[in-house]
Amino acid sequence: MPQSSRYSDERVEQLLSKLIKVLEEHRTPTDLSLMLLGNMVTNLINTSVAPAQRKTLARSFAEALQASIREDEDKTH
Q: Which of 11, 40, 55, 72 sits a CA distance of 20 to 30 A from 46?
C-alpha cells in the first residue's frame, strides 16, 4: 500500500525532473549516477538526522528502495 506524502506529486516530479536533467546534461553513466545519489543520501542522513536515528532511517530507506524496484521487464531499456 503506497504511503501518503506531505509533499505534492507536482513538487516531487518537478524536483526529480531537475535532478535528472543535471545528470543527463553531464552524460552521467548509471553507475556514477547511483554513486552520487548514494553519497547524497548518506550526506543527508549524516547531517540532518540525529545520530541515534540514522541506522533506523537508513534501514527504512533501503527497504523502501528495494520495495520500489520493478522486477518485470522494463520497456525503457
A: 11
How many domains is the chain built from? Answer: 1
Q: Does a structural domain hold residue 42?
A: yes
Please give, one letter per residue, the 3-state secondary structure of the chain: CCCCCCCCHHHHHHHHHHHHHHHHHCCCCHHHHHHHHHHHHHHHHHHHCCHHHHHHHHHHHHHHHHHHCCCCCCCCC
Q: Per residue in 1-50, pLDDT tens?
A: 455 679 999 999 999 999 999 999 999 999 999 999 999 999 999 999 99
CA-CA distance, 77 to 73, in Å (whole number)? 9
